[in-house]
Write a structure and sequence with these properties.
The protein is α/β, with parallel strands linked by helices. The protein is built from 13 helices and 11 strands. The chain folds into 2 domains: 3-122 and 304-330, 2-Layer Sandwich (Nucleotidyltransferase, domain 5); 124-302, 2-Layer Sandwich (Nucleotidyltransferase, domain 5). The chain has helices at residues 39-42, 44-60, 91-102, 116-122, 164-181, 189-196, 202-211, 222-231, 235-258, 273-276, 280-293, 306-318, 322-330; strands at residues 3-12, 17-23, 28-34, 70-71, 80-85, 109-114, 129-134, 138-143, 149-151, 266-271, 297-301. Strands 1, 2, 3, 4, 5 and 6 form a 6-stranded mixed sheet that branches. A 5-stranded mixed sheet has the order 9-8-7-10-11, with helices on both faces.
Length: 333
């Protein structure tokens, strides 16, 4: 008897896309990885073409005649597409992207969510909890088993956001420039940031960034420098880390409150490159502050891959049995 694909799980971030094809029994039948998903840069259809290329490679890896026969979209075997996508920040964007995916005919049903939901679902056994993700940007989502969610627009400063690796790098540069020229408080950042690029001063770094000697996209390299400087006791750097901890706790607390979970035992998951780095000054402070706002919350860093979360969300949607969920998760341990 053949093994059919039940869920097409897609986790698509700005820099990479992961696809996993999940069988009816929770078996991971095939996986593939490809480029990033950036509809604001290249347009929706071109961005979905990137997903299509990754899906094609995953489908090519399905077991064939030499093993259990797996079919994608076979008659009588509904396939659900569970896509957790970067740049799907607003419900209207999720709906637009879902319509574009439906037009490709990859499954009998499609659900699109912001990619932060994949990180949350990957880290919990049941669809209940809150996740804060701090990578290049910052975002927070929450969910409960009855389908309720909490979320933020997470578009940047216009939606009230502060933090993320890019934002931290810009703040560090701002304080370092003022520390060097006397407008601000002295800080070791004025030496550490240019020193990372082998430069002697903030003036030299400013000139290099302004004139293209150092590509602007390399600014993200300064975020670890900020944390290293904070670890050395620099007050300015420490204040930035403290502010980020407060922002993470503010987002998590608001999400918990919206879902009525502030007084309950509930996981609060930390994800993204900044939080996954486990900087003690940041993560320990988050735990301390959250213990005051939500005393029963359990804080931990998500280690599971987000594509697992997309797949579990797909199984949630198809009504798969608990043992199917467990079998799927066991393959990512």
């Amino acid at each position: 008897m053949g093994v059919n694909v039940s869920v097409v799980a897609i986790d698509a971030g700005n820099s990479k896309t992961d696809v996993a094809l999940i069988g009816e029994d929770g078996t991971v039948l095939s996986t593939a990885r490809g480029g990033g998903f950036q509809p604001p840069v290249i347009g929706v259809e071109a961005a979905i073409d990137v997903l299509a290329a990754v899906l094609e490679r995953a489908a090519a890896g399905l077991p064939g005649a030499g093993g259990p026969r797996a079919r994608l979209g076979s008659p009588g075997s509904p396939v659900h597409v569970s896509a957790c996508l970067a740049n799907a920040d607003l419900p209207v964007e999720e709906a637009e992207l879902a319509a574009a995916l439906e037009a490709r005919g990859w499954g009998s049903s499609v659900e699109v969510r912001n990619d932060t939901f994949a990180i949350l679902r990957a880290g919990v056994d049941d669809p209940r909890g809150v996740a804060v993700v701090c990578g290049a940007g910052i975002n927070c989502v929450g969910m409960t088993p009855d389908g309720r969610t909490a979320r933020f627009p997470a578009i940047g400063r216009i939606s009230g956001d502060w933090g993320g690796g890019s934002g931290l790098a810009e703040e560090a540069l701002w304080f370092a420039a003022r520390a060097e020229d006397g407008r601000g408080e002295p800080s070791e950042l004025a030496h550490a940031l240019p020193g990372h690029f082998g430069l002697a001063s903030m003036y030299a770094l400013i000139e290099a960034l302004h004139r293209g000697g150092i590509p602007l996209e390399r600014r993200h390299e300064l975020t670890p420098v900020l944390f290293a400087t904070a670890a050395g006791g620099d007050p300015v750097a420490l204040a930035l880390v403290e502010r980020l901890a407060e922002e993470v706790v503010a987002m998590a607390s608001v999400a918990l409150s919206r879902l009525g979970l502030l007084e309950e035992e509930v996981p609060v998951l930390l994800g993204g490159s900044v939080l996954a780095a486990r900087h003690p000054q940041l993560n320990d402070r988050i735990a301390e502050l959250l213990a005051v706002r939500a005393p029963k919350a359990e804080v931990r860093v998500v280690c599971e891959p987000p594509v697992l979360g997309a797949a579990l969300l797909g199984l949630d949607r198809t009504g798969a049995a608990p043992e199917v969920h467990r079998r799927l998760r066991a393959q990512y341990v």
